[in-house]
């Protein structure tokens, strides 16, 4: 597969006769710029969805007043403008440099993940051959940002939130990695694009024709992913009824909204990973058995794939919201028990099971 | 050398929880000594909501004080109304008409139901489950509508009077209450399916902050919190006041179903089950509601004889009592409330040691503490 930035570079080269290096750099910059500009739409839509879904679950109506558009859609914009207007407060005894740096660390870590996500055949910035590990690595920057925020605020509640988060995110990265390894072994690749393409045959929404253990590893992945995103039932770093607001208690205005953006973007990233690893990426269900798809006009199919991908991802995000508004939250020690005594052994056994399946089942 | 917990140099942390903390149910301030997240000591600092209600009572007539009793505990105003009126009636030897007694029982039990709804809902909310609370609030609104029909108020009712109630039940009240009972039973089952048997919820509450029978008795814990510790005592059954002796209801006792007797889960379960019992009582009271007057004859200038009275009642949070001293004038010379949440707060330091910070939130919720009642 060729990435869109690569194609765009070729186009620039031919159209404007610029040097290949310049074209490549320019196209990458444009690609990254587009990505960075679009990612803030995710928390916008995410927070609206969260409000509406939670309202529906709780027999409320949710936002329905803001602006001239129906269903309170403008609420997203209103929230954005509101956070822009807030005073940027830094507590008196905070570590000013770290306090300011923390939101950026969070947001850089999450935004970087988007480079490797294949939205469609052409819709990605870079087809990294270690894409899965790249995402796992850069997304754990978020933990660093949260710990920094918790520490730099010089507040005991944020400190507790930061420490909890450090323990939680470091622990839950292991089951995630184990379940990802299971999938990677099954596909024989670490590239997200290749994994997706391997799922074109079959249902491409699961694994009907292949490894049972890979499907099981989704359970581990999903539970750990909830913890990785600090979502209920694992939202203990920001448990509002225990730690006031956890690590971002002292943040206001745009810095606060950076954490919110990072949180929703992280939800998007782990859901996108789940879609690529377990639900056939951007392919339609039964894509290989739908010949008419190949007869579509040029350029339609990639866009169709792009939409399919987004639908799948947003469904998983909806699932997260659904879980959040249904379940209570774990305590920190119970959460660690679940990780180290439950998920991790299960993930290891699953890994072994998958290996055996591959050897025995051919 | 192996670094273990005992060889690491650690430092205790002094943490100030409240008075503006989201889950201290009002303005409670807890000063905590923490070892990491483990609570070493809890020191409740109360008084942020002190309004001097008892002192105010000394400068008001007996009848004028009734609205203030609403404010002693705003989540169960009817119960406090009832308690105060009963105390004054006992002092003056006033006979309350039977219909008024039945109406009072209906009102106090309805108020107990909505108080337990808030109690259980707030506990779930403190543990991170927001939805059960809002499910409960839907039902609470219906009771508020009933109260509004009756006395025009939705929170501080000021409905009961010395010698009766302020007005008879409005038209349609009985039918609407029957309808509510039907609906509530179904909805309460639904809310319980959502949260009570939830594994995470049970894990968070079972074996947490166990209050033994001996401790409960020596710290004068009352009501559902006492029964959760396994003590079979309910004032409504064992020392019946008003017309409670005419109703048939069970008193749920803590059995330690998912953990130890007297843990947070037991305290929560008591409230869940008492709600069903209250529904039963309201139904019986409606069935047997007699006709007649709702207000005994009480002179306009009300002067009880000289003396003192101590009256107890089983309120949603435990036994509340009021002591009134009369010097024979129109105003009481002393009013004193004994409130259950105050005693519950006293036992915190004993049972919270060694629990996690997160458990503390569950403990506050499970005791269902209401701060205006502590401070008065």
Q: What fraction strand of chain B?
A: 5-15%
The CATH superfamily of chain B is known as Cytochrome-c3 Hydrogenase, chain B
The count of strands of chain A amounts to 0
Topology pattern of chain B, helix = H, strand = E: EEEHHHHHEEHHHHHHEEEHHHH
Write down the oligomeric state: heterodimer
Query: Any low-confidence stretches of chain A, pLDDT <50, length ≥5?
Result: none
Biggest interface and its residues per chain?
Answer: A-B, 28 and 29 residues
Total number of distinct structural domains of chain B: 1
Quick structural summary:
Chain A is 66% helix and 0% strand.
Question: Can you put this structure into words, describing what you see?
Answer:
The complex is a heterodimer of chains A (362) and B (376). Chain A is mainly α. Chain A has one domain. Chain A is 66% helix and 0% strand. Chain A is built from 14 helices and no strands. In chain A, helix 3 packs across helix 13 and helix 5 packs antiparallel against helix 7. The longest helix of chain A has 32 residues. Chain A is globular and about 60 Å long. The model of chain A has no long low-confidence stretch (mean pLDDT 81). By secondary structure, chain B is of the alpha+beta class. Chain B has one domain: Cytochrome-c3 Hydrogenase, chain B (Orthogonal Bundle). Helix content of chain B is 47%, strand content 13%. Chain B contains 15 helices and eight strands. Chain B has a three-stranded antiparallel β-sheet. In chain B, strands 6-7-8 form a three-stranded antiparallel β-sheet. In chain B, a hairpin with a 2-residue loop joins strand 6 and strand 7. In chain B, helix 3 packs antiparallel against helix 4, helix 5 packs antiparallel against helix 6 and helix 6 packs antiparallel against helix 11. Chain B is globular and about 75 Å long. The relative contact order of chain B is 0.19.
